[in-house]
Amino acid sequence: MKRLTVLANCCPPLGSALADDEALRLERVFRALGDRHRVKIVGLLASAEGGPACVCELVPALGLAQPTVSYHLKQLLEVGLLEREKRGTFAYYRLAEGALDALRSLLPAPAPLAQAV
């Protein structure tokens, strides 16, 4: 009888499932972050203390050609992680307001594992 009780209590109930539209949005964000250069861009912009960065600043930091950096920035912009500001012929990018908080909220801390009795 004790064994049945342990088996019945072994797993906590699952949380609520994501709605399809929210799951699709998250899929797009994770797909955009599925490239190491884009992750580096997010890291560089996060460490820029909220100030915008020009593509010309990101090129040497990433060691990539300007068209490649622009492509990666476009991918991050399309999923809402970045904001773009045009100044003459130059474009400046920064993390979108609340983008890091939104990423943190996607990955809540796991519940502690229950120990078997």
Give a description of the structure.
This protein is mainly α and 117 residues long. It has a single domain (22-106), classed as Winged helix-like DNA-binding domain superfamily/Winged helix DNA-binding domain (Arc Repressor Mutant, subunit A), CATH 1.10.10.10. 51% of the residues lie in helices and 12% in strands. It contains six helices and three strands; from the N terminus they run αααβααββα. It has helices at 2-8, 20-32, 36-46, 55-62, 66-78, 99-106; strands at 53-54, 82-87, 90-95. It has a three-stranded antiparallel β-sheet with strand order 1-3-2. Strand 2 (82-87) and strand 3 form a beta hairpin. The two termini are 13 Å apart. 12% of the residues are buried. The model has no long low-confidence stretch (mean pLDDT 83).
Descriptive keywords:
3-stranded antiparallel β-sheet; Arc Repressor Mutant, subunit A; mainly alpha; 51% helix; single chain; 117 residues
Average predicted local confidence, pLDDT: 83
| Approximate shape | elongated
CATH architecture tag: Orthogonal Bundle
Terminal Cα span: 13 Å
Q: Give the radius of gyration.
A: 20 Å
How much helix is in the residues?
A: 40-55%
Oligomer: single chain
Q: What does the main sheet amount to?
A: 3 strands, antiparallel
Q: What order do the strands of the largest sheet run in, or round the barrel if closed? A: 1-3-2
CATH homologous superfamily title: Winged helix-like DNA-binding domain superfamily/Winged helix DNA-binding domain
Task: Classify the fold: give the CATH topology.
Answer: Arc Repressor Mutant, subunit A
Per DSSP, the total helix count is: 6
State the domain count: 1
Main structural class: mainly alpha
